Amino acid sequence: MIEKSLAIRFPLRLERAQLVKEDARSAYARLLVLMAQTERGSWHASPEFGIRERLEELQRVITRDTETEEQRARRCDALIADVNASLLELGLDRYCVDRLELHLPSRDTQGRARAQWASHLFDDLSAVFVLRPVAPAMPGRQA
Asked: Nearest 10 degrees: CA dihedral of 88, 94, 100, 103?
């Protein structure tokens, strides 16, 4: 007996009971948001998929100002490498994360309202994953 799969091929998605195709870059961006919201190991199909706790840890380190810029850069590079490895594990190779941009409130804002700001750690850091297209390896590839 042949088993049939009802999988939807990326970048197609279901929206309001309709099958919708979006451009690949938008689909990758949407997937990165899902990765950021997902705890690592919580998705059995791809145990390395989630990065939520890594982003939370990065935010704590930056907020506490306990690492040098070089240490933060290495931490960001490792996160980018893991995200790209997860994308490849899923067979998604059209785009990769080129860099991670972190945006924090200004130092003045931090100083004036340090206690309040520290209690809202997860409201103040913005992490932007910048995508770049990957040169095609061979014709006819998917995603």
From this structure: -130
Distance between CA atoms of 7 and 134, rounded to whole angstroms? 24
What pLDDT digit, counting tens, does each position of 45-69 carry?
888 899 999 988 888 888 788 888 8
Which pTM value belongs to this model?
A: 0.72
* Residue 142 included in any domain: no
Q: Is residue 44 in a domain?
A: yes
Residue 58 CA to residue 23 CA, distance in Å, equals 30
Give the Cα separation of 132 and 114 in Å (integer): 36
CA 12 to CA 143: how far, in whole Å? 10
In-domain check, residue 7: no
Q: With CA atoms as reference, report the closest residue to 105 among 71, 66, 59.
A: 59
| 19 in a structural domain | yes
Q: For residue 106, give Cα distances in angstroms to 7, 112, 115, 129.
A: 45, 10, 15, 20
